[in-house]
Amino acid sequence: MKYTSEYTAYHQDRLVLTPRKRRHTATFLYVEIGLVLVRLGKHDIPVYAGQGFWLPFDCLYALMITPHTSLHQLTVSPRVTMSLPQSAGHVIPSTLLHAGLTALEPLSGANQNTPATRRLHRVLLDLLVTLSPAIANDASYQCVAACVDQANAGRSLEGDNAHFTFQACTQLTYSALCEYLTVRHLRAQLKSGNKLEAAATSLGLSYDAALALSDEYHAVLA
Q1: How many CA atoms does the CB half-sphere of 30 hold within 13 Å?
Q2: Sorted alphabetically, which keywords does the UniProt record give (predicted)?
Q3: Half-sphere exposure (Cβ direction) of 5: Cα atoms closer than 13 Å
Q4: H-helix or E-strand containing 124?
Q5: What's the fold here for domain 5-129?
Q6: Whole-angstrom Cα distance, residue 95 to residue 157?
Q7: Helix (H) or strand (E) holding 53
Q8: Cα–Cα distance between 3 and 64 in angstroms, integer?
Q9: Dihedral in degrees, nearest 10, Cα atoms 21, 22, 23, 27
Q10: What's the pLDDT tens digit per position in 75-129?
Q11: 134-152: per-residue pLDDT in tens?
């Protein structure tokens, strides 16, 4: 990293799957709209509209950013000596932290080294020190997390309330989530060296269904 912290805004129209690896940087995510799944160990932790999530230095993780998600990402260099949180988890960002991220959006890219931008970065770093990350446990989060678990297991979702809560929080349908997770599983099979037909069989898909996903999500699966 060139700077002690760097800001990126994501406004994704397509599915994004990042590789699972250990990052030496720390990262703060804030979702404006949509859904991000943070893969920690064997668990997918949902982060949806209005939620922040902290990932400390040397954390092993992967992200799945669903289409049409708007996401702020603040990445912190390991050169920073401030006492930042050492555990991963959700955070409820203060009004000032949210406002700072929003203010950085039009200043991102080539403007990250202006005096005004660096001052704003210093303010945000001070705010990150005050975070107390913890996995959310409110009723809406528990419903969304249960839906993700159901989708990962390939099970249908029963009950109108679960469908409504999931869609209200994430702006996604449950069927769309299932498709994105299937694409991720298919990608893992292909990355491990399996051919499409063998990958489809392993996932319980027909070859035609796998081929259709391969065509639609070519950029993700390549």
Answers
A1: 23
A2: Plasmid
A3: 26
A4: helix 115-129
A5: Jelly Rolls (2.60.120)
A6: 35
A7: strand 52-55
A8: 26
A9: 90
A10: 999 999 899 999 999 998 999 999 999 998 887 666 667 888 888 999 999 999 9
A11: 999 999 999 999 999 999 9
**130 vs 120: CA distance, rounded Å:** 16
3-state secondary structure of 11: strand
CA distance 190 to 184: 10
Of 50, 59, 46, nearest to 149 by C-alpha is 46
Rounded CA-CA distance 102/95 in Å is 11
Beta pairing, strands 26-33 & 69-76? antiparallel
Q: Could you report how far apart the first and last alpha carbons of the chain are, in Å?
A: 27
Per DSSP, the three-state class of 61 is strand
User: Residue 222 corresponds to which tokens in the numbers above?
Assistant: 């390549």
Q: Which residues contact 89 (CB under 8 A, 6 or more apart)?
A: 53, 54, 133, 134, 135
